[in-house]
Amino acid sequence: MIPFLKWPGGKRWLVQKYPKIFPRQIKRYFEPFVGGGAVYFHLEPRRALIGDINTDVIIFYRGIQKSHNRFGELMNEHQKRHSGEYYYKIRATIPDDEVEKAARVLYLNRVCFNGIYRVNRRGEFNVPVGTKTRVVLPTDDFPAASRLLGKAEIVQGGFSTVIRNAGDGDFVFSDPPYTVRHNNNGFIKYNEILFSWLDQVSLADELIGAKERGARILCTNANHASVRELYEGKGFKLSVVSRYSSISASAAKRGYYEELLIQG
Ligand SMILES: C[S@@+](CC[C@H](N)C(=O)[O-])C[C@H]1O[C@@H](n2cnc3c(N)ncnc32)[C@H](O)[C@@H]1O
């Protein structure tokens, strides 16, 4: 299945370029930083525990899980009524109904400026309207998503809540915000506000614990010495993968970036 939300750090490129790194037989699938869920929707696991700290992400998955019919109707309605004025009206009002809230998240994600996610200090989504006008895409399969999510447990919260439940025969895919110990790269520093170096250290501890309980691990991360040190000598295989990135406004910064794969 094709993911629905456009999400920073989305891993569609990883499933397309490196499909063999994901196991076929999984007792239960665990994804603590699910975001747009590129890997989850690619693998379509029969049993899953997915989570994220971002409440909008969770609202979206729970809403579509609850009613794909109503969700689809609401998205068609947003498509019909979309305009700059309509966008700002929807952005300013948070409905009470769970499915309406979920459709609002996907609507804003589809037509906001550059598909970025940003909130103000009060936690309100404050991205201006963008130039894209397609609210419903031909690849959207809401009934299939609802069936798949119906087999998943969806939790809002920190990564430990999810990873602590993983045990023998389970598979954990972990894709945290990339933070390194020493850095002078502005992009990574921005993420640091959301995910500190201490978070990165406790994530490694949680993943080591899950591996010791018999779970298989795949974690993506920044290819940086400080991150590699957290996993070296602990029975993980470390390798480097590359991706093409075009997100930078400056041509000099567009190109191939290396990322670290931690497998155990
Ligand atoms: C790199 S993104 C994951 C992208 C995802 N793999 C995809 O394909 O779209 C990282 C996610 O981690 C979430 N996050 C940040 N800090 C977290 C924490 N402490 N616990 C759980 N989730 C967290 C963010 O909200 C974000 O959705």
Essential attributes:
264 residues; alpha/beta; 2 domains; globular; Rossmann fold
Describe the model.
The protein has 264 residues and is α/β, with parallel strands linked by helices. It has two domains: 12-53 and 157-263, Vaccinia Virus protein VP39 (Rossmann fold, 3-Layer(aba) Sandwich); 63-138, Adenine-specific Methyltransferase, Domain 2 (Adenine-specific Methyltransferase, domain 2, Orthogonal Bundle). The chain is 40% helix and 16% strand. The chain has helices spanning 12-17, 38-43, 55-66, 68-81, 84-92, 98-111, 142-149, 159-163, 186-194, 197-212, 225-231; strands spanning 29-31, 48-52, 152-156, 171-174, 216-222, 237-245, 255-263. The protein has a seven-stranded mixed β-sheet with strand order 3-2-1-4-5-7-6, sandwiched between helices. Helix 3 packs across helix 6 (98-111), helix 4 packs across helix 6 and helix 4 runs antiparallel to helix 7 (142-149). It is globular, with a radius of gyration of 19 Å. The model is unreliable at 186-192 (pLDDT under 50). Residues 7, 9-11, 32-33, 35-38, 52-54, 57, 158-159, 175-177, 194-195, 199 line the site of S-adenosylmethionine.
Largest sheet strand order: 3-2-1-4-5-7-6
How many structural domains? 2
> CATH architecture of the largest domain, please?
3-Layer(aba) Sandwich
Low-confidence stretches: 186-192
- What small molecules does the structure contain? S-adenosylmethionine
Give the strand tally.
Answer: 7
Shape: globular
CATH topology of the largest domain: Rossmann fold
Rg measurement, Å: 19 Å
Q: Could you spell the SSE succession in H and E letters?
A: HEHEHHHHHEHEHHEHEE
